[in-house]
Amino acid sequence: EDAARQKEINAIKMVSPDFDNDPLPEARTVDGVTIYPVKKQNTPAGYAVKTFSEKGFSGHIELMAGFNADGTINSITVLQHKETPGLGTKMAEPKFLDQFFGKDPESFTLKVKKDGGQVDAITAATISSRAFCDALQRASDALGTVNDSTRILP
User: Mean per-residue pLDDT for 75-101?
Assistant: First the structure.
């Protein structure tokens, strides 16, 4: 259990803005997506969101996505996938990931360009790219929004 807890904390640290709280006890799960609030000196710094999609080329993929307090994407790490080596596996590489950082899912369409979105798909791995976008959209939806676009926990 300690190893699993440490693995979760490490993933949260990889994607989150700087924080000093223990986000695990405050975690909430919405539709299978786990939201970890991160705080710095008791002030909300953002969220780490463990999300997934079943739409990968080889099924289930799992991501940890970090969101800043303003709702923009801080960072993303791929936790689990069974995608094709050399193709879908590229979803874990900076060349693909970097296009999401600093983007607000409210204004940045989390779909591949082929589907009318703003995401550059991985060459020869459109299905994996779509699954990644699906997981990220699921994370954004779980966070929820209010009229002024300030993200809140549901």
Answer: 95
